[in-house]
Write a structure and sequence with these properties.
The chain has 530 residues and is α/β, with parallel strands linked by helices. β16 (467-468) and β17 (476-477) form a beta hairpin. The model has no long low-confidence stretch (mean pLDDT 97). It is globular, with a radius of gyration of 22 Å. It is built from 19 helices and 17 strands. The chain is 46% helix and 12% strand. The protein binds acetyl coenzyme *A, the ligand O=CC(=O)O and magnesium ion (MG). Magnesium ion binds next to α10. It is an enzyme of class 2 (transferase).
Length: 530
């Protein structure tokens, strides 16, 4: 057999990077690339095919060909160590301070985010891996510029679950034969290579959250990656566990099939509400007014199409013995403003209470100050039980028509909503391009998923000639000129030199008004990064 081409590293090699970029680890990435890159590309092409069919007027439905899987008797693997009780999961990026704060937060699980909350700048990619490895070794420390020292607690820490990039992103600093590696395989591969054995030795395991899947075939690809990686590194089959985010509209029709593909590695499903909304806007952007959502902030978890999706998710998971994990309420507490804090705590309590009552086994929070509320709500629901997998919810039936019922979402499309979308989108992109992928804006958490809703909604309103309500009552037709004017006005309202937003505004306009819809805003944003 001819030797595999080597991985070329074009990114800087800062202090300690060679600990992650070892020849053996790079060799493993090359093997993953050779084994799976062509299938990754085929599956991305399949996404485009399905989207084109949708634009022609077709609709999604449950797949006729996989009915035997939906009707069959099977269950996913028993929960792995550290993933039995998941009542509170904190999410966040993997810089050293956040890593320590998240692991010490009292949450059962930490979603170590290399995805929605992360800019995949080279430094974030490699230093995130170093921080994860040091955290598992319990050697991670951090000293803030003000001199505050952060260390890991002595006792139990949250279980680490890593979320790699989605299948669509590439890593431009790692090349094989001049071709970029897939971001997903880089994030997965480096973590698995360096930390799988370490995690096993500590009684835990290599655990993952898998984002933005659009079909069970994409889940099959992940499963094959897991089988390959375990075999290659001599890790027992079935050690990896993965929770799949159901956060694209097509995936909502394939929940059972996704669990089935991954069944020996499955740790359940999560309701990724923000990307789900983005996906609905994106998939139906060219389908006229039947699929228009109201202002982003008016779409709540009680909208009929969202309710249908979360109900189906819980029912599907529990039927198969899998955890159902709730999503993110975007309200961020404040240690400085008691009024903001009170609102955030009340909103999060309401959200988690609904999820616990619906049967979810745990849920996400974005901030350590929200851990106690989520815990309290799920404690009240679960009592002594670690989860509520025994609540099968056989009474729930969800039809394709209910999942497709975007039209019944209450709420208006307003000029204020349009302005908020534009302003938040520009501010977020400025932060993303500066290397920070999660940020609080107007006391709400903004990350790649929420920013995608903002920009795709502007695109949809513009390309469907929507008229938004105005305070004066006359209404305002969304045009390219209007969006450009508001983008200019909103950036001049922001603190500091408006020129600081020039690059972000230009990018926002590119992804919000261009005739051709850009699939993910992070694609052009990444090309602008060094
Ligand atoms: C759609 C989705 O995918 S949701 C999941 C992806 N999104 C996320 O994970 C967002 C996670 N959350 C965050 O990144 C942050 O909470 C933000 C950016 C929203 C707000 O952060 P900040 O402005 O720093 O909040 P704040 O100043 O109140 O933080 C207080 C302390 O809590 C820490 N903290 C805040 N959020 C987190 C977190 N998620 N994990 C760990 N520590 C955190 C801060 O580091 C800070 O620590 P310090 O007191 O030691 O300095
Ligand atoms: O990843 C989570 C989401 O809501 O998107
Ligand atoms: Mg998401």
């Amino acid at each position: 057999m001819s030797p595999l081409a080597e991985v070329e590293v074009t990114g800087a090699r800062h202090d300690r990077y060679e600990e992650i970029l070892t020849p053996e680890a790079l060799g493993f990435l090359a093997e993953l690339h050779h084994a799976f890159e062509s299938r990754r590309r085929e599956l991305l092409a399949l996404r485009v095919e399905r989207e084109t069919a949708l634009a022609r007027g077709e609709l999604f439905d449950f797949l006729p060909g996989t009915a035997p899987i939906r009707d069959g008797e099977w269950r996913v693997a028993e929960p792995a160590p550290g993933l039995v009780d998941r009542r509170v999961e904190i999410t966040g990026p993997t810089d050293a301070k956040m890593t320590i704060n998240a692991l010490n937060s009292g949450a059962r699980v930490w979603l170590a985010d290399l995805e929605d909350a992360n800019t995949p700048a080279w430094e974030n990619v490699i230093e995130g891996q170093l921080n994860l490895r040091d955290a598992i070794d319990r050697t991670l420390v951090f000293t803030s510029p003000a001199g505050k020292r952060y260390t890991l607690d002595e006792g139990d820490l949250a279980t680490i679950v890593v979320r790699p990039r989605g299948w669509h992103l590439t890593e431009k600093h790692l090349l094989v034969d001049g071709e970029r590696l897939a971001g997903a395989l880089v994030d997965f591969g480096l973590y698995f290579f360096h930390c799988a054995r370490r995690q096993l030795d500590r009684g835990s395991g290599p655990y993952f959250y898998l984002p933005k899947l659009e079909s069970h075939l994409e889940a099959r690809l992940w499963n094959d990656v897991f089988l390959f990686a375990q075999e290659r590194l001599g890790i027992p089959r079935g050690t990896i566990r993965a929770t799949v985010l159901i956060e694209t509209f097509p995936a909502a029709f394939e929940m059972e099939e996704i669990l089935h593909e991954l069944r020996e590695h499955s740790a359940g499903l999560n309701a990724g509400r923000w990307d789900y909304m983005f996906s609905v806007v994106k998939k139906f952007r060219a389908r006229g007014t039947d699929f228009l959502l109201p202002d982003r902030n008016a779409v709540t978890m009680t909208a009929p199409f969202i309710r249908a999706y979360t109900e189906l998710l819980v029912r599907t998971c529990h039927k198969r013995g899998a955890h159902a994990i709730g999503g993110m309420a975007a309200f961020i507490p404040s240690r400085r403003d008691p009024r903001v804090n009170e609102t955030a705590l009340a909103k999060v309590r309401e959200d988690k209470t609904r999820e616990a009552g619906d049967g979810f086994d745990g849920s996400w929070v974005a901030h350590p100050d929200l851990v106690p509320i989520c815990r309290e709500v799920f404690d009240a629901q679960l009592g002594e039980r670690p989860h509520q997998l025994d609540r099968v919810r056989a009474e729930v039936t969800v039809t394709a028509a209910q999942l497709l019922d975007v039209r019944s979402t209450p709420g208006a499309r307003t000029e204020a909503g349009l302005r908020a979308n534009i302003s938040v989108g520009i501010q977020y992109l400025a932060s993303w391009m500066a290397g920070t992928g999660a940020v609080a804006i107007n006391n709400l958490m903004e990350d790649a998923a929420t920013a995608e809703i903002s920009r795709s909604q502007v695109w949809q309103w513009l390309h469907n000639n929507v008229t938004v309500d105005t305070d004066g009552g006359a209404g305002l037709r969304v045009t390219r000129e209007l969006v450009e004017r508001i983008a200019h006005e909103e950036t001049t309202k922001l603190d500091g030199d408006p020129a600081r937003y020039d690059a972000a505004r230009a990018l926002f306009l590119e992804v919000a008004v261009a005739d051709e819809f850009v699939d993910f805003l992070t694609l052009p944003a990444y090309e602008r990064m060094p």
